[in-house]
Amino acid sequence: MSENQAAYPIATMCRLLGVSPSGYYAWAKRKPSRRAQADAIVLSHIRRAHAASHGTYGAPRILVDLREKGIRVGRKRVARLMAAAGLTGVSRRRFVRTTVRGGGRQAPDLVERKFAADHPDLLWVADITYIPTAAGFLYLAVVLDACSRRIVGWAMGIKLITQLVLGALEMALATRHPNGVIHHSDQGSQYTSIEFGQRCRAAGVRPSMGSVGDAYDNAMCESFFATLECELLARQRFKDQAAARTAVFGFIEGFYNRRRRHSAIGYLSPVDYEHQLAAAPGPHHDAVVLAAVKDKPFGRPQAAVLDGSSARRLRAPAGRDGRMAPAEQKNGAKQEDKMAPHDVP
């Protein structure tokens, strides 16, 4: 009625809608309810958290942000307010495979799809992806720590050559100084090259490779590339490789490693998770393994471990890929959480 009062008399609209003019004017002058005022305050915090995530967070991660600020609110309420305000997280789309099998010597599979470690620098996973620009492709090689999900090494170049993966490995070695870490990759020609194998032996790195043409054998790195795709690459277009380099650097070092919340590590960022592990009392343990993401058609040993010396115990999988928390029960309570206005700062 308020939007159409310039075209139609209020009395006419009230008669058609079955309301009294006095009731309409009383509603128009009435202040928003306490619940509406509280929703407005919560929504302002949601907008700030959504903007700080570069527009990538959905309701689960926004909820963690709000609770860290001391705001008592439930997931369903956050989802409702985000939907009403038109705020959404990003969704993933399929990524293009870039692996080219080389004719060099392949390393054994020391991981067997068990991407878990008790503390950093026990298991690294590595892979290469491409970044489209108007001036051609830019290739990105990364080394990711399986414990904290942190990108510990990365390199970019315009050619798919061995020096690209060597650059990522050198960065990881310089910043982490590991002792006997497992480096798991696919069987791309860059990783099977003689030069890469010699550098691994010189640094005390144990190479590991999955089978050919199976993304599940390097699922953790593929998961990072999917995140990079949906949260950065699908939302921007780069005019040249220099612009892509700047954007990827800012995403990895400015957001992903230091600020992005990961559900697999308690909705902490990789850096915060490593700090939490470092501050935790008690001795660290060697790597443990979780259940496979998906068994291959020809089968895999269920009790496979990183290697004979580093395995101590098996841990029951927590979800589909052994890293996710159990899902909510379908028949759980649907009612939206109740929050008094004084609970919101």
The gist of it:
This protein is an alpha/beta fold. It has helices at residues 10-17, 21-29, 34-52, 59-68, 75-85, 162-176, 194-203, 219-231, 241-256, 270-279, and strands at 123-133, 136-145, 151-157, 182-185, 206-209.
**Radius of gyration from CA coordinates:** 26 Å
Query: Structural class of the secondary structure composition?
Result: alpha/beta
How many E strands?
Answer: 5
What proportion of the residues form beta strands (DSSP E)?
A: 5-15%
How far apart the termini lie comes to: 34 Å
| Main pleated-sheet profile | 5 strands, mixed
Helix-strand pattern = HHHHHEEEHEHEHHH
Low-confidence stretches: 94-101, 283-335, 337-342
What value does the average pLDDT take?
79
Please report the number of helical segments: 10
Looking at the structure, the CATH topology of the domain at 123-279 is Nucleotidyltransferase, domain 5
Give me the CATH superfamily of the domain at 123-279: Ribonuclease H-like superfamily/Ribonuclease H
- Strand numbers in spatial order across the main sheet: 3-2-1-4-5
CATH class of the domain at 123-279: Alpha Beta
CATH architecture of the domain at 123-279: 2-Layer Sandwich
Overall, the morphology is elongated
Which helices and strands occur, and which strands form pairs?
Elements: H1 10-17, H2 21-29, H3 34-52, H4 59-68, H5 75-85, E1 123-133, E2 136-145, E3 151-157, H6 162-176, E4 182-185, H7 194-203, E5 206-209, H8 219-231, H9 241-256, H10 270-279
Parallel strand pairs: 1-4, 4-5
Antiparallel strand pairs: 1-2, 2-3
Helix pairs in contact: 3-4, 3-5, 4-5, 6-7
